[in-house]
Design brief:
globular; 38% helix; 13 helices; alpha/beta; single chain
C-alpha cells in the first residue's frame, strides 16, 4: 500500500494561506472548468458564489432528503423553497479526490484564483440574492439556504462561527435562513483547536444549522485510492463524526458509491462479485454503528458521481465502469440497510427525525 500524504499536515499549511485576519479566501470561478458545470445547475454570482439548484423537474435528488429537507421544517416554508442554495466555496482542500468537481487551482489557497472576504460581506451577497428571489413565480427558484462548502470549509471553522455571528446581528434573520456546512472528516481536531468553547457553544445554539459530512472510502484501501491521503486517516473519519454529534450538532452524512473501490479493485473490475461489494458495505456499516452510533447508517445518503469538466480527464475506461455501477451499489446498500434495520421503526422516518445517538 502506497504511503500517501498527511491531510492534517497539508491542512495546517493551507490554513496559513487561506486565512487573513477575519477574512477567508473564497474560490474564483471565473475562467475555471467548474464554471461550465455550475451554469448547468444554476448560475455564478459575482464570480465567487454559486447558486445551485438540486432537483430538476421530474427528477429526484438526494438533497431533497437532508440537510436541505430539514430546512423547510425549520423555516416553516414549502419544501420546494429549499431546492436552491447560495453556495460559498472555500478555496482550499486537504484531500485530492480523483472524482472532485473542483479545479485543482481552486484547492490550493492560491490568491490568483481567490478573493478575501469576511462573513459580513458573504452574508450581504446572500441576502441580496435571497431577497430578489423570494417572490419568484417558481418556488424552486427561491433561495433560503446558505451553504458553506469547498474545497473544505472546516479548514477554517471560524468561518462558521463568524457567519452565525453575522446572521445574529440582523434582528430575526436567524429564523429566516438555513445554514449548511460541509465537512470532509479529514481535518482532525481543527474544529476544537481553532475555536473556543464559547464559540462552539454559540454555533451549536444556532438552531437552523446542519453539518453534512462526507466519507471518502469504505475501507483504508479505497480511502487512500480516492483521496491520495495516508490509509490510517480512514479511521479518523469516524472519530470526527462521533465527536460532532456528541457536541449535539445535527449531522448528516453521505458517501459516493464509486468510493467503494480501491486501486486493486479497479485492476480486476470485471471480476468483482456482488458478494464482495456487499461484504465491503456491511463492514463499513458495522464500523459506523460501532464507532459513530447505531443509527448513523440510517442518516447516510449515496449521491452519484458524475462526469464534470474538472474530473473528466481523470475518468479512465475502468473508472467509467465504476461510475456506471453506482445504481447497483446504491441498491445493494438499501437492501443491506433494510435487512439490518428491519425491526427499527426509525427506518421509515425522514433523516432529520432519526436520532443521531
Amino acid at each position: 500500500m502506497a504511503k500517501g500524504f498527511d491531510p492534517i499536515e497539508l491542512g495546517e499549511k493551507l490554513r496559513k494561506k487561506l486565512i487573513k485576519g477575519d477574512k477567508v479566501m473564497l474560490a474564483n470561478f471565473g475562467k475555471t472548468l467548474q464554471a461550465k458545470d455550475s451554469f448547468r445547475a444554476g448560475k455564478i454570482e459575482s464570480d465567487y458564489f454559486r447558486i445551485k439548484k438540486y432537483r430538476k423537474p421530474g427528477k429526484k435528488d438526494y438533497f431533497e432528503g437532508e440537510p436541505a429537507g430539514i430546512a423547510s421544517v425549520k423555516l416553516g416554508i414549502f419544501k420546494e423553497e429549499c431546492n436552491t442554495v447560495f453556495l460559498a466555496q472555500v478555496n482550499a482542500c486537504n484531500l485530492r479526490c480523483w472524482y472532485c468537481y473542483v479545479d485543482e487551482k481552486n484547492l490550493q489557497a492560491n490568491p490568483v484564483y481567490g478573493k478575501w472576504i469576511t462573513a459580513d460581506e458573504m452574508l450581504y451577497y446572500f441576502l441580496t440574492v435571497s431577497r430578489l428571489t423570494q417572490h419568484a413565480k417558481d418556488p424552486n427558484d427561491r433561495v433560503n439556504i446558505l451553504r458553506l462548502s469547498g474545497g473544505e470549509a472546516f479548514l477554517n471553522p471560524k468561518l462558521i462561527y463568524d457567519t452565525v455571528q453575522s446572521i445574529k446581528k440582523i434582528a430575526g434573520l436567524e429564523k429566516k435562513l438555513y445554514l449548511w456546512a460541509d465537512c470532509n472528516l479529514a481535518t482532525g481536531d481543527f474544529f476544537w483547536k481553532y475555536l473556543t468553547r464559547k464559540q462552539i457553544d454559540e454555533i451549536r445554539n444556532f438552531k437552523n444549522l446542519g453539518i453534512c459530512v462526507c466519507y471518502k472510502g469504505f475501507d483504508k484501501e479505497s480511502f487512500h485510492y480516492n483521496t491520495g491521503a495516508q490509509p490510517k486517516f480512514f479511521n479518523q473519519q469516524f472519530l470526527m463524526h462521533r465527536r460532532l454529534i456528541e457536541e449535539d450538532f445535527d449531522v448528516y452524512s453521505y458517501i459516493y458509491p464509486v468510493s467503494i473501490f480501491s486501486a486493486t479493485d479497479l485492476e480486476r473490475i470485471d471480476e468483482i462479485s456482488i458478494e464482495y461489494l456487499v461484504q465491503k458495505m456491511d463492514t463499513f456499516i458495522r464500523r459506523l454503528q460501532k464507532n459513530v452510533s447505531y443509527y448513523a447508517p440510517l442518516r447516510v445518503t449515496l449521491p452519484y458521481i458524475k462526469e464534470y469538466e474538472a474530473n473528466k480527464s481523470e475518468i479512465s475506461p475502468r473508472r467509467k465502469k465504476i461510475i456506471e455501477l453506482q445504481p447497483v451499489i446504491k441498491n445493494l446498500w438499501e437492501q443491506i440497510i433494510a435487512e439490518k434495520y428491519r425491526y427499527c421503526n426509525y427506518r421509515k422516518l425522514s433523516l432529520h427525525q432519526i436520532p443521531t445517538l
